[in-house]
Amino acid sequence: NWFFPGTLVAIGVMALILRLLAVESRPPHLDEVDQYILAENPIGSIVRSMGIRPNAPLDYWISSLARHTAGLSFGGLRTIAAVEGVTAVLLLGLFSRRISGSLSTGLLASLFLAIQPFVITLSSRIRMYSLLLLLSIVVLYAYDIWRTSGSKLWLAIWLCSSVLIIYTHYYGFLIVVLPYVWYVLDGVLDGG
C-alpha cells in the first residue's frame, strides 16, 4: 500500500517548500548572526568557549563543520535547520502511526507539524530549535521501538540520541527522562 508513504512524502515536500521559502524571506535575528560569526571559528575554539556561552555546543559544532567543510553561507546554514525540520515532520508521522496504530493519525501529525507557522519559523533559523525537535522525536521513537523489540540497534540509537539531545540543549534531559516516566506509568496503568 503506497498511500501512507506517498502521502507522507508529499507532506515532506510541502514542509520543505514552506521552510525554504521562510529561509529566504526572514531577516536575520541577532542570535543567528552570533552563531554564524561563532561558526567561523574552528571547532576546538568553540569547545573552549562553551564554558562562557549559555548554550549547549552541538548546533555550534554542526554550524562550524558546515562552514569549514562546505563553506556554507548564512542561507546555507539556515537550510540545514530546514532539512532538520523536514526530517522531524517525516519522523513524527512514522512515530505517530506507530504509537497510535492509525495511518490517519500519523499523516495528520505530520501535516500539522509541517504547516505550523511557529515551527516553520524555528526551522528556518540558524539555531538549535529544529535539531532539538528532531532529536526529541528520535529519542522517543527509538525508545519505543527498543522497548517493544529489545533490539540492541534501537537501544544504541536511543542512547546516542539521548546524549546528542543534551548536547543540543540543556533542557534536552527532560526528553531523555520522559521515556522512564512513560515506562513507570505504563507499568502502573497496566497494574504492574
Describe the protein.
The chain has helices at residues 3-25, 30-38, 43-49, 58-69, 74-100, 103-115, 117-122, 129-149, 152-168, 172-189. The chain is mostly helical and 192 residues long. The longest helix has 27 residues, at 74-100. The chain is globular. The mean pLDDT is 92.
What fraction of residues sit in β-strands?
under 5%
Distance between the termini: 38 Å
Number of strands: 0
Q: Please give the share of residues in helix.
A: over 70%
Instruction: Indicate the radius of gyration in whole angstroms.
Output: 18 Å
Helix count, per DSSP?
Answer: 10
Would you tell me the structural class of the helices and strands? mainly alpha
Residue-averaged pLDDT, rounded?
Answer: 92
Gross geometry: globular
Question: Largest beta sheet, briefly?
Answer: none
Helices and strands, in N-to-C order? HHHHHHHHHH
**Which regions are unreliable across 5 or more consecutive residues at pLDDT < 50?**
none
Task: List descriptors.
192 residues; mainly alpha; 10 helices
What does the secondary structure layout of this molecule look like, with pairings?
Elements: H1 3-25, H2 30-38, H3 43-49, H4 58-69, H5 74-100, H6 103-115, H7 117-122, H8 129-149, H9 152-168, H10 172-189
Helix pairs in contact: 1-5, 1-6, 5-6, 5-8, 8-9, 8-10, 9-10
